[in-house]
């Protein structure tokens, strides 16, 4: 069962949702990086799912320096507000907050990875290139501008939907060209947000299940 925690950062204290494994010693730590919709029901369930898999998982509320207690719906208004908040926060501050969230997990002796979704997928990529965290990016649509100047510092896994209208095939190919050592998977029939099981119009169960299995295999190797 997850719980609210406070995370000290250079930008003030922010909230987070943390869950610990129900049994046995943790297999590592995971910073779960939100979509643009905030640390909502879906993100909390992702945290708890990884805890059930044996990891200490924590989702920092990245919007807190801009606006606290943000949980947006998946309609057009929520999408537009999320874009505004992500822009106001900026990628640099987002990565700094991820570093602050990873710090207490590392202090507990855990090796730490980042897993991000949507906007958070691009933040996870930067947590790899700037912080050296092994990272998993689910449909990170804003990574292309960083491919020219940023290089991975740790293992990297990227999941893309083959029918994602926000990430064209040319963008996926750019990732392949610029990140030859990354593990990259494309899921045919899946669109943007295919892991989002609270939104039936986005959720693609077979792709979500396969991506999760691949993510667990990646984590086992990267955090061993």
Topology at a glance:
Elements lengths: L2 E5 L6 E6 L9 E5 L7 H12 L3 E5 L15 H14 L1 H17 L4 E6 L1 H13 L3 E4 L17 E6 L7 H10 L4 E5 L17 H18 L2
Parallel strand pairs: 3-4, 3-5, 5-6, 6-7, 7-8
Antiparallel strand pairs: 1-2, 2-4
Helix pairs in contact: 3-4
Structural notes for this entry:
The chain is α/β, with parallel strands linked by helices and 224 residues long. Helix content is 38%, strand content 19%. It contains 6 helices and 8 strands; from the N terminus they run βββαβααβαββαβα. The chain has helices at 41-52, 76-89, 91-107, 119-131, 169-178, 205-222, and strands at residues 3-7, 14-19, 29-33, 56-60, 112-117, 135-138, 156-161, 183-187. An 8-stranded mixed sheet has the order 1-2-4-3-5-6-7-8, sandwiched between helices. α3 packs across α4 (119-131). The longest helix is centred in the C-terminal third of the chain and has 18 residues, at 205-222. The protein is globular and about 40 Å long.
Largest sheet: 8 strands, mixed
Structural class: alpha/beta
Low-confidence stretches: none
The count of strands amounts to 8
Work out the helicity level: 25-40%
Mean pLDDT: 97
How far is the N terminus from the C terminus? Answer: 25 Å
Please identify the oligomeric state.
single chain
Radius of gyration: 16 Å
What string gives the helices and strands in order?
A: EEEHEHHEHEEHEH
Largest beta sheet: strand ordering: 1-2-4-3-5-6-7-8
Strand proportion, as a percent range, falls in 15-25%
| Individual helix count | 6
Shape call: globular
């Amino acid at each position: 069962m997850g719980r609210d925690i406070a995370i000290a950062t250079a930008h003030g204290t922010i909230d987070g949702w943390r869950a610990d494994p129900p049994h046995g010693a943790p297999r590592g730590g995971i910073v779960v990086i939100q979509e643009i919709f905030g640390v909502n029901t879906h993100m909390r369930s992702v945290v708890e799912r990884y805890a059930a898999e044996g990891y200490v998982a924590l989702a920092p509320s990245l919007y807190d320096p801009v606006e606290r207690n943000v949980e947006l719906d998946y309609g057009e208004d929520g999408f537009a507000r999320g874009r505004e908040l992500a822009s106001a926060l900026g990628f640099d501050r987002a990565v700094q907050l991820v570093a602050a969230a990873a710090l207490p997990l590392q202090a507990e002796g855990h090796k730490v990875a980042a897993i991000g979704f949507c906007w958070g997928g691009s933040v996870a990529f930067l947590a790899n290139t700037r912080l050296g965290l092994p990272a998993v990016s689910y449909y990170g649509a804003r990574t292309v501008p960083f491919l020219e100047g940023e290089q991975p510092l740790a293992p990297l896994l990227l999941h893309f939907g083959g029918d994602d209208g926000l990430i064209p095939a040319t963008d996926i190919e750019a990732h392949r060209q610029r990140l030859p050592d990354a593990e990259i998977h494309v899921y045919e029939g899946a669109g943007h947000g295919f892991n989002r099981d609270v939104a039936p119009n986005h959720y693609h169960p077979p792709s979500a299940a396969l991506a999760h299995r691949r993510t667990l295999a990646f984590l086992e190797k990267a955090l061993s």
